[in-house]
Amino acid sequence: MQITFLGTSSGVPTRARNVSSVALRLPQRAEVWLFDCGEGTQHQFLRSEFKSSQIRRIFITHMHGDHIFGLMGLLASCGLAGNRQQRIDIYGPKPLNDYLQASRRYSQTHFSLPIKIHTVEPGLVFEDDDFRVFCDLLEHRVPAYGYRIEERDRPGHFDVKRAQALGIPSGPIYGRLKQGQRVKLDDGRTINGADLCGPDLVGRKLVYCTDTIYCDRAVDLAANADVLIHEATFSHRDADLAYQRLHSTSTMAAQVALSAQAKQLIMTHFSPRYAPGNDIQLSDLLAEARAIFPNTAMAHDFMIYDIPRQDDKVLASASV
């Protein structure tokens, strides 16, 4: 699981930062899942290593323009990229379908690829054999959802040498044993696959919370997350603006991470007011957050973060 930040600005793009979008790369499936799709996201895609044909799912948090204005252009371009047969599933608030249908009608755009819109409600949004995705309402000026992506636990390392020492013939049997199944051999012995596997590999958990002011539901959604991506639009010194606009400060994001016992916080969605040369700069927001939650990083466009497993000996590093 690898995260790439395609846009980290709040409200409007800047020369250095585009508006909101985060890509989750799933190498084992050759898929990319997008979280939000602000204006210009497809241009950011062109500047990345991704291919539009890899996009499989798009999760929209809410209907503000800096999170959805890039969606129509991206979908139209995906349709023109070739004869794509695999469907793109799009998840988001109830008005999302009306928005896309109206945009298609008035722009006379025809999507030449299969698309399905899913209206989300708090709870389970998607699941398959490898992943589950949940969402919950946050606190913003319009209905806004945070998303939690959970990788399912996998059986631990299969001890091939031990299996060979026991005289277990290689082949399909190994596959069943790797899954922890009990297998009866031709010689009458029953082998418990779990006895030949190490501890289960605990699935990773990624949580994406933007836009919102501090709220208990964000804490619940982020419980024990390996990575929490949380908006930090404002400095702690501009907390009054945060309360007025229902956005988070750096310290609110850090408090969510601390209360949720997350392992890593990555802040994003920064107000352009903290540009270099101003009285308050983004480095100040990072210092504010780290005073509460030391394991905090500050996202920038095209930053890549590999989510480590708990059993990884070498932890991934994030650029700050």
From TrEMBL:
Q: What are the recorded GO MF terms, alphabetically?
A: 3'-tRNA processing endoribonuclease activity; identical protein binding; zinc ion binding
Q: Which top EC class applies here? A: hydrolase
Read off the Gene3D superfamilies from this record. Answer: Ribonuclease Z/Hydroxyacylglutathione hydrolase-like
Q: Which residues form the active site?
A: D66 (proton acceptor)
Q: Which Pfam families match?
A: Anti-Pycsar_Apyc1 (PF23023)
Q: What's noted on cofactor binding?
A: Binds 2 Zn(2+) ions.
Q: Which residues form a coiled coil?
A: none
Instruction: List required co-factors.
Output: Zn(2+)
Q: Which UniProt keywords apply?
A: Endonuclease, Hydrolase, Metal-binding, Nuclease, tRNA processing, Zinc
EC nos: 3.1.26.11
The organism's superkingdom is given as: Bacteria
Query: Which stretches make up the Metallo-beta-lactamase domain?
Result: 18-269
Q: Which InterPro entries match?
A: Metallo-B-lactamas, RibonucZ/Hydroxyglut_hydro, RNase_Z/BN
Q: Where is the signal peptide?
A: none
Q: Where does Zn(2+) 2 bind?
A: D66, H67, D211, H269
Which of this chain's residues are annotated to bind Zn(2+) 1?
H62, H64, H140, D211
- Check the record and name the SMART domains matching this protein: Lactamase_B (SM00849)
What chemistry does it catalyse, as a reaction equation?
Endonucleolytic cleavage of RNA, removing extra 3' nucleotides from tRNA precursor, generating 3' termini of tRNAs. A 3'-hydroxy group is left at the tRNA terminus and a 5'-phosphoryl group is left at the trailer molecule
Q: How does it assemble?
A: Homodimer.
PANTHER family named in the record: ZINC PHOSPHODIESTERASE ELAC PROTEIN 1 (PTHR46018)
What protein family does this chain belong to? Belongs to the RNase Z family.
HAMAP family this protein is in?
Answer: RNase_Z_BN (MF_01818)
The job of this chain, per UniProt, is described as: Zinc phosphodiesterase, which displays some tRNA 3'-processing endonuclease activity. Probably involved in tRNA maturation, by removing a 3'-trailer from precursor tRNA.
Supply the name of the protein: Ribonuclease Z
